[in-house]
Amino acid sequence: MSLAPTQDLFFFPSMLTLEPGESRPIRVGSSSAPQDTERSFRIVVEELPPLQPSTQSTGLNVLTRVSVPVFVAPKKKTVHGQIAEAVLRESKFHVRVQNPGTVNFFIRNLRVRGLDAKGKRLVEKEEPGWYVLAGDAQVYAMEIAGKACRKVRTVEVEMETDQGVLRQTSPVDSPAPCAR
Question: Three-state secondary structure along 82-114?
Fold first, then answer.
């Protein structure tokens, strides 16, 4: 993730004081019309150090910093996540998830299974997901042990998203998918 300052988003108030346990809304707006694809931003909210130094001679003062995602809706919303690749290569499951849609989707969980020639589950790997922005992709690589790796003939992927569950099964095509 790379962040850069922008003038495309504004928020109010730009500074505020909160007492312990207090909350306040921050209003966010966009300075431009909707585009063909969703635009993504982050608002970083930081606690400033006190104006006067602490009178305590010992201790640790921790300041809060929160990064909040903001998505600006496109002209037309199209949600479309897909598993573009699911292979076994170099003793790893490689899964590439694409988003050719116009808005982001969130991967809650990605589960990959290695099956033998009879369909028996040999190995299962699981990873939490993250946002896949419009027009972008996420790549996962999950290492598997050599003994189980050499017996895998099918890669089965199950991806739980905020839009539902996607499944894909792919044969192992590589003649030597496992590192020696």
Answer: EEEEEEEECCEEEEEEECCCCCCEEEEEEEEEE
How many other CB atoms are found less than 10 A from the CB of residue 24? 8
The answer on 90 and 165 residing in a single domain is yes
Across 129-156, average pLDDT? 93
Q: Which residues pair with 43 in a beta bridge?
A: 68
Residue 135: closest CA among 63, 81, 67: 81
Same domain, 114 and 143: yes
Looking at the fold, whether 92 and 160 belong to one and the same domain comes out as: yes
Whole-model pTM over 0.85 = no
Same-domain pairing of 89 and 30? no
CATH number at residue 89: 2.60.40.10
Range of the domain at 36: 9-72
State how far the Cα of 89 lies from the Cα of 103, in Å rounded to an integer.
Answer: 31
pLDDT above 70: percentage of residues in the chain: 98
Maximum CA pair distance of the chain? 70
Are residues 164 and 135 both part of a single domain?
A: yes
Is the per-residue pLDDT at 1 higher than 80? no
- Residue 161 pLDDT > 70: yes
H helices of 111-160, in order, are 146-149
- pLDDT at position 22 over 90: yes
Q: Is residue 19 part of a domain?
A: yes
